[in-house]
Amino acid sequence: MVEIKIDEDACVGCGSCVDDCPNNVYEMDEEKGKTKVVKEQDCMACLSCHEICPAQAMEHLDIHVAKRLYIDRKVNDVIRKIV
């Protein structure tokens, strides 16, 4: 199972990871104004949260990524229009 660590000192509380995660692994901790892990067991290690985090406040342990499992289709559409 993937272990996720969030550096609360680095987290800016933007919620990008919460919005981006396809498996709803995260929620905002309203009291702290930071992201918290609520369903670590549902993480599929796609690392979309890690890629979108502006503060790089996340660390994923015990993963072996063979291929990217999640593709943001909106981003791909924008790239296709540019290219």
UniProtKB/TrEMBL annotation:
GO terms, molecular function: 4 iron, 4 sulfur cluster binding; metal ion binding; oxidoreductase activity
Pfam families for this protein: Fer4_10
Keyword line: 4Fe-4S, Electron transport, Iron, Iron-sulfur, Metal-binding, Repeat, Transport
Alphabetical list of InterPro entries matching this protein: 4Fe4S_Fe-S-bd, 4Fe4S_Fe_S_CS, Fe-S_Ferredoxin
Residue ranges of domain 4Fe-4S ferredoxin-type in the record: 2-31, 34-63
Name of the protein described by the UniProt record: 4Fe-4S ferredoxin iron-sulfur binding domain-containing protein
